[in-house]
Amino acid sequence: MQTQILGLVTPLMVLFFAATFAVFWRLGNLPRYVLGFALAYVFSAVGFLITHLAPEGAFYVFHTTQLFYSIASTLMVACVCERAGVRLHFGSFAAVYVLSAFALAVAVGLSDDVGPRLIIVNIGYGAMFLMGVTTLLSARRRSAIDALIVAIMVFQAADFLVRPVLTLLFERSIPAEVYRESIYYSLIGLVLGVKGVTTAMVLIGATIVDWTRILRGRSDTDVLTGLKNRGAFERTIRRLLPQAEVEGRRLSLVVADVDHFKQVNDIWGHQTGDTALSNFAALIGQMVRSCDTAGRVGGEEFCIAVWDCDNGPAERLADRIRQAFARLQHEGLGEDIRLTASFGVATAREGETYDRLFSRADAALYRAKAKGRNRVENAEVRASEEPLAAPAPQAPMVKLA
Hints:
Layout: H1 2-7, H2 9-28, H3 32-53, H4 61-84, H5 90-110, H6 115-136, H7 144-170, H8 183-219, H9 230-247, E1 251-258, H10 261-268, H11 270-287, E2 293-296, E3 301-307, H12 311-327, E4 341-347, H13 354-370, E5 376-378
Parallel strand pairs: 4-5
Antiparallel strand pairs: 1-3, 1-4, 2-3
Helix pairs in contact: 2-3, 2-8, 3-4, 4-5, 4-6, 5-6, 6-7, 7-8, 10-11, 11-12
């Protein structure tokens, strides 16, 4: 009876960690891989409980536990890889499971000795973790917590591949009917407990790091538009400016302002105005590259830091956004009403500060406003010259005077 109770310690501890990850996922609104960690621990606990509580010597025990442990291993490795931004090849995992399941069925049919069964299933789990390690090594992330995760995956693979062989060297044969009284069974409870705690501590640490990063990102995000807020945008571009000089890259700044926005709020209401701003932000997000940075720096004013982009392409980007926005329909305005935006573009000069760069782009924006709005003005072109692109034809528009 005492042995039965002690045998429940490991699965109960594993279920505790599963609950911990589930709470993290729920409270923090964290990515799905955190929930995956919880499910991996649940399947692992179920597998151990089946081994511990099933009738002694039952033929189906190894088949069932192999299924649950394989699901747990696959989930664990897949979620770790998803966190690192790399994709796991699930076909390879399925192949490992099918091959090991077939070999296990043969071993069960040929002998009552559980030794070959243990080696077969553990080699399968070890192979899964090894494939996970090779996949993780291709990830770009190289922080300390990422290195710890790789180390814990290596530890998992080594344990699965080495432990059964070493144990069976001392315990030559283990009949199925006395498996729970074997040295191996006593050892596996201890090893699974240590692995469960060690792996959980590393993954909980990674989850806390990710949660902190997400919270910091949320504090840097404008709630209405989903773009960076003013503080976050300015911190980013102040960092990019010296980086661009060191790397010999051009950095351009686009400043945009929705035309007559105050009248939109006054006539159609703030909710409609918020919808228009959200639509404009979504359009910017769709049209800039992943290496660019966009932010809302004022009520209806937006900025885009265009990385590694010279003046001409930056101006053309602004004009594409301008034309697309002029065609966009906004809920609450009616089908025949369109809004427009004006743009100013400037490209950083050697040694130029963000304040000076923004001032030049903002002056170009005001020049666009003064020339009739719905146009792009370039700070690198003399004020007396016409912009490279004329305003694009638009759908019928209600003029906001």
